[in-house]
Amino acid sequence: MGDSYGGESLLFLTDEQLRQGIEAMYFAYRGFTADPDRILATMAYGRAHHRAIHFINRAPGTTVTNLLDILGVTKQSLNRVLRTLIEDGLVESHVGKTDKRERNLFLTEEGVALEARLSDAQRVRMRAAYRDAGPEAVAGFRRVLEAMMDTEMRRKNDTLRDRGA
Amino acid sequence: MGDSYGGESLLFLTDEQLRQGIEAMYFAYRGFTADPDRILATMAYGRAHHRAIHFINRAPGTTVTNLLDILGVTKQSLNRVLRTLIEDGLVESHVGKTDKRERNLFLTEEGVALEARLSDAQRVRMRAAYRDAGPEAVAGFRRVLEAMMDTEMRRKNDTLRDRGA
DNA sequence: CTTGGAGTGTCAACAAGGCTGACGTACTGT
DNA sequence: ACAGTACGTCAGCCTTGTTGACACTCCAAG
């Protein structure tokens, strides 16, 4: 791509280039959510259910407050989603051991199965995109995304990563 | 960066790495929309208005059908948004010259002003992210995003780019 | 041991922004 | 003349977000 003019090469950023980036982000995000959305549409679920399932799977035993913090929605909004998932037997809510006010959330076997279906679909696309673009592009992709998050989001993301590792 | 093991280096993609990419995409998209969302919230507008304004500004004189195709929503949904924008004097709708069934959409002066405010906010963040990540990362970022779009989306994006150039 | 505050659940009401279905009007191209 | 296209609109529904209010449980500090 002609970045042969030194390591700290000049970064000309015309409004036109930035707008292309903005539009690429918009269209790519639509693609990114399209596959799980199609699966969810066949059930009575939406993207909000997917997010809840994803992060409960990510950090099993997480509390409601923690989830609220990650997702950035109101508890009423989350609770509506959570209730249907519990009723449908995808999520279990256990009273906390140390602090009995807290609820620790877990996916049931059925919940794990749905999570797998959804994230498989998403990973297929992500994997294909990574493969097409190549490893260096992937590293750059990740760096730009990290830089684009809000600071608090990056913190939450890091927290998740540490706990998961 | 350790990409010194050849051009077509192996691309190990563990599920863990892919999940990190998925979460990064989620958090980054939230950051990406946060700034314009804050501005829109002060008026009676939402993200849907932003999208309409953006693409009308992008391709002035575009038709309703064209916009529907780009945005991927129903005409009822778009029309609700478009109507308020026209009523508020941000968008003008002119009967087509060659084909009088068509409506050509344009931003008014006021509409251009709002578009500038919104995209300025978005560009500031994008520019900062690009600067933090560096030019090579930006190229990679764009490559992965392109690969992540649906094929039709890529087509639309290209069409827009060609027309704009 | 009481009491403030945190964590949680829930009711009610509302808004944005998607959707489907149906219908009407104006216009084009065959 | 007529079928089909482009557009607008009415009505109704869903998901997912919001605010506000209230109740309950429980931990911790005074």
What secondary-structure arrangement, pairings included, does this model have?
2 copies of one chain form a homodimer.
Chain A: H1 15-42, H2 47-58, E1 62-63, H3 64-71, H4 75-87, E2 91-95, E3 103-107, H5 109-133, H6 135-148, H7 151-164
Antiparallel strand pairs in A: 1-3, 2-3
Helix pairs in contact in A: 1-5, 2-5
The structure holds a DNA duplex (30 and 30 nucleotides).
Short description:
Chain A is built from seven helices and three strands; from the N terminus they run ααβααββααα. The first copy, chain A, is mostly helical and 165 residues long.
Q: How would you describe what is shown here?
A:
2 copies of one chain form a homodimer. Chain A is mainly alpha-helical and 165 residues long. In chain A, 69% of the residues lie in helices and 7% in strands. Chain A has 7 helices and 3 strands, in the order H-H-E-H-H-E-E-H-H-H. Chain A has helices at residues 15-42, 47-58, 64-71, 75-87, 109-133, 135-148, 151-164, and strands at residues 62-63, 91-95, 103-107. The first copy, chain A, has a 3-stranded antiparallel sheet. In chain A, a hairpin with a 7-residue loop joins strand 2 and strand 3 (103-107). In chain A, helix 1 (15-42) packs antiparallel against helix 5. The first copy, chain A, is globular. The two termini of chain A are 35 Å apart. At the A-B interface, helix 1, helix 5, helix 6 and helix 7 of A face helix 1, helix 5, helix 6 and helix 7 of B. Chain A binds a DNA duplex (30 and 30 nucleotides) through helix 4.
